[in-house]
Specification:
This protein is of the alpha/beta class and 312 residues long. The chain contains 9 helices and 11 strands.
Length: 312
Amino acid sequence: MIDPRRLHILRAVVANGSVAAAARALHLTPPAVSQQLQALERETGTPLLDRSGKQVRPTAAGRLLAEHAERVAAQLRQAERDLAELTGRVSGPVRLAAFQSVMSALVAPAARKLADTYPAIQVSVTECYGPSALAELRLGDLDIVLTEYDSSGATPAEEGLGLRTLAFDPFVLVVPPEWAITVRSLADLAGRTWVAGPPGTARDHALRRLAAEAGFSIEPRDVCVEFPSVLALIAAGRGAAIVPRLTLRPTLTGAPVATCPLPELGGRYIAAFHRAGPAQPGPAVMAVLDALASESRDSFPALPAFPASGPG
């Protein structure tokens, strides 16, 4: 009898390309992964990995079993669905990755409501974002990964993953109060300093797009990941920034800044990646996705309105 847990390990090795990478993904030591693979080879009576080169490669038998491992995992997910339909009880762990700016407005209240509606679902949240989070999602170490993207760009697509859009969050121009200027268009800020987001983020993409449309280029003085840091630097006079309106909720910032919500700025979409395929997403993951979507509908229209221009 083939041990399905060892099939899962083989699948991770084939997906990651090495024993060491699979061990990191599975939170095991490389010797433990190797021992399980050797035991699986004894169970099947055939070599599953070619260890003759610098990289470990699956043999024909290894690839075959890795494909079966995926089907076994899909069948187990279908069993969870069928059981949930039969009993009316949705249960199980759901591992969610999110970023700082959506924690208090979206993730935390959705988790609270889920605890009341589906007490048998165990949601665990980790602050993680980007390619590393998507890699963990593909490996099964995460079930949902929240992401953001500039509304003017293409909807992100990842092979083997589904994407559910949750909310639109408009961009707001924020400037230091000491500038004491009225901003009627972004062109009024040509030559000014900026606090930008890291390359690849929605706000970095938006800032560079909008500056190009306004006819000037930017060289950010400061680059920050977290929005409390961005707003603190703006309050200190370091520069202007494009930020999502969600980050200006009173619970997220105490920094004094001047807001200029120009209508042409666009915004970001907040969305959730999940695994796609047979019986995916499972009942528990679907319940969490539905809760996030419901919280988005409830929370985003309630965001405060800001004056049409800065001081001056």
